[in-house]
């Protein structure tokens, strides 16, 4: 038996998990299996999986990545250094994973040529985002929401207009979670589990925590020759917050079928290409000339 490497880390792989089975968000004790290569097994398309399966698998990967981040990578702003890949490899990889997820979501929507199929893909992504939110995977959830709010996707008026009634309602409900007004208050509240014991696995939207660290770093460390203990206490509180999310993995078996798809995804990373595809799918509306 072998381990497979996904995004640079080793992850255990089990058999396909029944979507109807009860989720047990406790420490994982998965058996390691070999994932067939694309030559051995045909790669299934994304829509062949259920939204629940996709949200579950992405939650497993996200938490595995998050658990590898060290406090030192955050505390000393190492992810902002020129040699960040060396001094903050895990945090850098985690941030890169977010951007990759966002590009992946935009890719699967914009590379779907037929409007009817593109609508189905968008509905699938919205439902997946909602399930990721229920799994407390706020990182993948946010990546989806931000990607759908990005201009190449949000400008597809005909696609959005033809969404099912339930999906439109669901999108209005979940999109406000990522509202950055009031200092991301909604997302922050979702990361609070006061009085909940044991706390469920949760992958935070780490951008909020990094923003807090950057703001605290702007406060002078010393004032009138004395250490600024107020800054130190606030910094320690944020770092303690980071630690509290390091938790046992989701007790879900890794799907070989999905991981085969995951490892063979085609992802566009060029913003110009996204705009090009967006205008191909729905050209600019011509303004009527006044007579």
Provide tags for this entry:
291 residues, two-stranded antiparallel sheet, two-stranded antiparallel ribbon, 4 strands, 54% helix, disordered N terminus
Task: Please write out the topology.
Blueprint: E1 4-6, E2 9-11, H1 51-67, H2 71-75, H3 84-87, H4 89-110, H5 115-134, H6 138-149, H7 151-154, H8 157-161, H9 165-175, H10 181-190, H11 206-217, E3 222-223, E4 226-227, H12 229-244, H13 256-263, H14 271-281
Antiparallel strand pairs: 1-2, 3-4
Strand content: under 5%
Q: What characteristic shape results from the CA principal axes? A: globular
Class by SSE composition: mainly alpha
Which blocks of ≥5 consecutive residues have pLDDT under 50?
A: 1-34
Q: Report mean pLDDT, rounded to a whole number.
A: 83
Strands of the largest sheet, in order across it?
Answer: 1-2
Largest sheet: 2 strands, antiparallel
Number of helices: 14
The first-to-last residue Cα distance is 74 Å
**Secondary-structure element string:** EEHHHHHHHHHHHEEHHH
Helix proportion range: 40-55%
Compute the number of strand runs. Answer: 4
Radius of gyration: 21 Å
């Amino acid at each position: 038996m072998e381990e497979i490497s996904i995004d640079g880390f080793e992850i255990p792989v089990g058999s396909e998990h029944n979507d109807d089975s009860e989720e047990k968000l406790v420490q994982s004790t998965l058996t390691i299996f070999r994932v067939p290569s694309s030559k051995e097994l045909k790669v299934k398309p994304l829509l062949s999986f259920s939204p629940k399966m996709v949200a579950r698998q992405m939650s497993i990967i996200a938490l595995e990545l998050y658990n590898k981040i060290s406090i030192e990578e955050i505390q000393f702003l190492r992810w902002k250094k020129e040699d960040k890949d060396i001094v903050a490899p895990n945090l850098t990889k985690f941030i890169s994973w977010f951007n990759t997820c966002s590009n992946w979501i935009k890719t699967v929507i914009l590379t779907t040529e037929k409007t009817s199929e593109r609508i189905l893909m968008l509905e699938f992504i919205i439902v997946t985002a909602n399930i990721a939110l229920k799994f407390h995977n706020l990182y993948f959830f946010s990546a989806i929401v931000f990607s759908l709010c990005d201009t190449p996707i949000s400008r597809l008026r005909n696609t959005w207009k033809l969404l099912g009634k339930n999906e439109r309602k669901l999108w209005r409900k979940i999109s406000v979670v990522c509202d950055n007004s009031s200092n991301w208050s909604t997302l922050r509240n979702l990361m609070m589990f006061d009085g909940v014991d044991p706390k469920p696995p949760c992958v935070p939207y780490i951008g909020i925590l990094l923003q807090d660290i950057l703001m605290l770093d702007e406060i002078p460390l010393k004032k009138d020759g004395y250490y600024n203990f107020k800054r130190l206490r606030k910094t320690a509180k944020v770092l303690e917050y980071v630690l509290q999310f390091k938790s046992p993995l989701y007790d879900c078996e890794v799907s070989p079928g999905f991981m085969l798809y995951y490892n063979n995804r085609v992802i566009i990373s060029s913003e110009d290409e996204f705009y090009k595809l967006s205008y191909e799918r729905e050209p600019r509306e011509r303004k009527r000339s006044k007579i």
